Amino acid sequence: MKKDIQYFNDKKRTKTPISLLTAYDFPTAQLLDEAGIDILLVGDSVGTNVLGYKDEREVSMADMLHHLGAVVRGAKSAWVMVDMPYNSANDPFIACENARMMIERGADCVKIEGWEEKKNVVAYLSGQGIPVCAHIGYNPQIHGSKGKTFGKTTEQALNLINSAKVLEDSGAVMIIVEKVPQEITALISGNLRIPVLGIGAGRECDGQVLVINDVIGITPTVYKHTRKYMDFRSMVLKAVTDFKNDIEKGSFPSEENVGHLSAKDLEGVLKAMGR
Ligand code: KIV
Question: Is residue 175 located within the same domain as residue 249?
Fold first, then answer.
């Protein structure tokens, strides 16, 4: 059964943590879905993690729609959230046109970076029936790719707490809080009815967000807020080096990998070739 916002609200109510991982392609989406991950985020981190871009600002709507389609095809029960890329949600009407394309492509929800200043966009999209997840704290599209913690000063902390409430009141169905001290995340989460998910924001919220490349060890760096569950890079490196060595020493393909023609059929082919 497809997960929905009611399911996530129930999880918040019953204090059952919500899991969110980024996904950028079909096979990964299938695996995460099979593992029971609640939400697959087609993040604009696809730019740096998959497309080789220098930062999130290079990611276009076309990029997002392309990867969204692949993830949607792989997600059976997980909820699919998609990032609105840089400059695609500056104004309510443009944001709505872009978000509609994403919903038509199969997204269950769009995610918009920005604090209180995004309230009109969130309100307009919500009013049009488009579920929106707000994303506050560190916003790569706005603050650049060098991540820093927000909410360490009283002014910034109050700004975050206020922004979260304003965005909920504007119709956001969920909020992601990135790189914020746990104490502030706890205040935000305790203050809202909607689920608050954190990335680098501590344990005191309704769920956790991580980037798939960090979790499986494609990313070489292990950041403070992540946990590397396997070393994909060295496993792939070993597999492809073994393949190269096997073909060089002639042990691949082996007999079991080879298809044959019967002697009689081969004779027919040779005859037809005039040999
Ligand atoms: O694009 C992304 O991966 C994100 C998460 C870090 C929340 O926005």
Answer: no
Cα–Cα distance measured from residue 181 to residue 172, given in angstroms and rounded to the nearest whole number: 22
138 plus 264 within the same structural domain: no
Is 214 touching ligand 1 by the criterion CB < 6 Å? no
Same domain, 170 and 147: yes
- Do 152 and 202 lie in one domain? The reply is yes
SS3 64: helix
Burial (0-12, 13-18, 19+ Cβ within 10 Å), 257? exposed
Q: Give mean pLDDT, residues 23-40.
A: 98
At 230 the pLDDT is: 97
Residue 168 beta carbon below 6 angstroms from any ligand 1 atom: no
What pLDDT shows up at residue 146? 85
pTM for this one?
0.96
Q: In this structure, are strands 174-178 and 39-42 parallel, antiparallel, or unpaired?
A: unpaired
Whether 178 is catalytic is yes
Q: Are residues 63 and 83 in the same domain?
A: yes
Tokens representing 80?
């699919």
Range of the structural domain that residue 241 is part of: 235-272
Ligand 1 centroid to 211 CA: how many Å?
Answer: 7
The ligand 1 atom at the shortest distance from the C-alpha of residue 56 is 1
Span from the CA of 10 to the centroid of ligand 1 (angstroms): 24
> Ligand 1 pocket, 38 CB below 6 A?
no
Catalytic residue among 56, 113, 168, 178: 178
pLDDT tens-place string over residues 202-225: 999 999 999 999 999 999 988 999
Q: What is the mean pLDDT of the chain?
A: 97
Q: What percent of the chain has pLDDT over 70?
A: 100
Number of domains in the chain: 2
